[in-house]
Structure formats: C-alpha cells, structure tokens
Amino acid sequence: MALLLFLFLATTLTISQGSDQETIPHKVHLLRPQSGAGGDHVPGLSCLSWRLGVETNNVVGWITVPEECEDYVGHYMLGHQYRKDSRVVANQAILYAQSLSLARDGKDVWLFDIDETALSNLPYFAQHGFGVEPYNPTLFKKWVMEGQAPALPESLTLYKKLLSLGTKVVFLTGRPEDQRTVTVNNLRKAGYHTWEKLILKGSSYSGKKALVYKSSERKKLEESGYRIIGNMGDQWSDLLGTNVGNRTFKLPDPMYYIS
Amino acid sequence: MALLLFLFLATTLTISQGSDQETIPHKVHLLRPQSGAGGDHVPGLSCLSWRLGVETNNVVGWITVPEECEDYVGHYMLGHQYRKDSRVVANQAILYAQSLSLARDGKDVWLFDIDETALSNLPYFAQHGFGVEPYNPTLFKKWVMEGQAPALPESLTLYKKLLSLGTKVVFLTGRPEDQRTVTVNNLRKAGYHTWEKLILKGSSYSGKKALVYKSSERKKLEESGYRIIGNMGDQWSDLLGTNVGNRTFKLPDPMYYIS
After folding, report:
1. Would you state the torsion angle of the CA atoms of residues B84, B89, B90, B91, taken in this order, to the nearest 10 degrees?
2. Range with the lowest mean pLDDT among A25-29, B4-8, B108-112, B203-207?
3. Residue A248's closest chain B neighbor by CA?
C-alpha cells in the first residue's frame, strides 16, 4: 500500500501540473502496481469473486468495499485490468452503434452517466481507500467542485465515435443541479465538447433513489420524442428500471454502490 | 491442454464409477489445472475482460467462445475460480432468503434454471472445447439423455437452505417437454428430491426465444397466485424480461449464450 500511495502522490503532482491548462490529460491511471490485478490470491474472501458479484448485481446495497479487498481494488483500478475491462465494454458499444441504421432525424440519443462513466473520480478515490472508507459527501463535493476529473478514456473514445455516427449525446447524472456549472466546465475540459442535454438531479428528486430519478428522466426524454438507442453507466441503477434504452452497457465500478 | 484432457479422462472414469448408484457425486470439477484461472495473461484479447463482458451482459449474442480463450475458459471452469464465483452468488442468495419474512402460505417460490444452474454439464463441455466448438444439438441431447449431470454444488446448497426456510422451488428450463422423464430422474439423482413445479419448454414455444418463453411462464406462475421471491440462472435470458421476481441471481457461464 505504501508503494501505491507513493505512486499516487507522484500522479497527483503530474495531474496538478496540467490543472491550469484548458484540457485535462486523459490519464486516469498513471500508476503501475507491482503485480497485475484481476486474479491476485486473497485468503478467505475471494475479492475477484466479490468484484464479479458486484458487477453482475448479485452483491447489492453494500456501503463500503470489504477491508481485505482495499489493495485488490486499488490494484485493479490503477492497473491494466480496469482499463481492459472498460475497453471491452466501449468496443461492444461501438460495434453495436455501428450496426444501427439511424434515422438521422436528430432524435437518436445515447445516454451517458457522468461519474465513473464519462468522467473518472479515480484521483479522489485513490486518496480515500478505493471505496474502503465510508463515503464522505463533504470531501467528495470538494473534489467535484475542483472540476478536474479526467475523462474515462474509453468513454471518450465511444463519445467521439457516436458523434461521428450522427448520434446525439445526453448526460444523465446524479450530481445535483447546483453543480451544473462546474460539471459543464469539467466535461469540456475533459474533452466532451457538445451534448444535446445535461440532466442533473433537481430538488424535486431529493431523497429519491437514483433508479427512480433516472427512470423518470428517461421517460420524459422518450415522451418528448427521443429514442434512447444506448445507455451506459457504471451502476446498475443507471441501467435498470423503466425506459432503459435499446441496449445498456455496464462499465466496471468496484468502489461504490448506488441504489 | 493435453494435461487438461488427461485429467478430464481420469475424472470421467471417476464419475462413471458412480453412474450405477442412485446418486451422482457432487463433483463438477475433480480436475486441478496447473495454474489458477481468473487472471491469466492472454496476449491480445483479454479473456478475463471478455468473460466479465459476458457476465455483465455487455458481450451478447455470441455463438462460440473466442478460440484464443479456450484454455482460459477451460482453466476457469475446471479450477477454483468458477466455484468461488458461484459460491459468492449462492451465499448472497442465502443471505437474501434469510432476510425475508415469508408468509408460509405455500405461495412463495424460488425459480431455478436447470442447465449450468441446478445441474452442471461441465463433463460434456470439457469434452467439447468449453464452448469453443459450435453447439452440437445431437451430441448435447445424447449427453442429456444419459441423465448423469451432477449438481452445481453451490446451487444444491442454496436449494436445501430454501427448503428449510419453507420456500417452494420451481424449475424453469429451456429443455423440451420430451426430456421430462430424464430430467426428473437426473434432478433426483443429483440431490434435488422435491419441487413445486418443473416447467419444460412446450411445443407451443417452438422457435420462441428463451426470454419470451420464460417471461410468459413466470407471468402464468404469478397469475396463479405464486410470488417469485428469487430467480437464479446462468443466462441473462433467465433473469430479464417480465415478472423476473423480487431479486435475481446470475451464476457464471462463459461457455455459451442463450438469447
């Protein structure tokens, strides 16, 4: 873990150097752990099995990453496997998008969630135990308000491909409405320069679960004539419920669970 | 691969010795591959990422396992990781079932798929490239008609726990109606001694997709007063569609995909 922290500090410095520039380097994991993640032996609980359980929505409603899996999740997120896993998802999405015959009437939209989908908060979570620490809304908000989250490169690649295919993009995020400005600026800095809509969680959804809020907003989209041809998120609450779209794509996220 | 085949033959002999007995040993993987699966480095395509993509329903509609992943999938299925992954799913299901306050009016049912859920066809697939060979309906039917498929031990553990909690079990399988007798006998031999219903695919569903057939049969169950409190399968077509139940559980299966 010491090595990980050391490397992380080095990364933070690297990222900070770019913070005054217009764009954020597309690097969510400059770190290189000593050993490969994705199959490390963990005595007792199999963290690999736990992660698969999370990704398949078998392990639900958990509050924090199991303590014994901190190193495992850290290595996974900072190593090659997270990016490889994300690449397979994005590649499947690209193949699917290319296979469609779109009407090109401006009504085909692709939904992206923001956190751990369009943008990566890995620089934050690397400083907070990769999900082992209980969620701290104050510190996380502070990080969000810096507006320095890099793109998840695989999502940005998909985004650019979708635009080239004539698809419009809608961002649908659980971030609250009062983070609109910083979110707009962060998306632009990270390389997302255009979108049809950016939907943030309005106060009327206060206390409502993400699944309810996102289903309701997707329904509104469809009722106003949009066709949701694809829907990508890191949480199952992005992808389940109603009006989920023609096909959904689940990006990995073993760091937190949102109902 | 040669070692795998040699070990497999040894297993086949072991399993055969028990074939005249009333029960089938609960062993789906006597084999011990040389190296652990779940994280082996595969040049080019990451088979681990491909498998995660399959399990999360990002990689859909595939016909065969990618050729370069035969060894990977074989090691995974015959090694510890498949069983560990299955155990996490079954344990989550047990925790969930224990958390429920059941009416005990005989209307609470738990759905199990059969192939790669209640029963394991691993002895067959180990002889047929673990899904690399295209599906051969003649040979697979021959294997099914032998009625010698062992239980997936984790599913059998869950089954017994559910019965002890007062839950009734319904098997809902894509096997055709004319395999009822062999399926009844195989389930009993493997350790499943009682159930509320065993639903096989009737001729009226001929040509219909599994998702349509299973949704329709689940709807009938609910319309006749049953409450589907849990639903476990190895295919997303067991778990998506309508009337899916209060909670679903996805067992691993990187060997084939059923729409």
Report:
1. 90
2. B4-8
3. B58
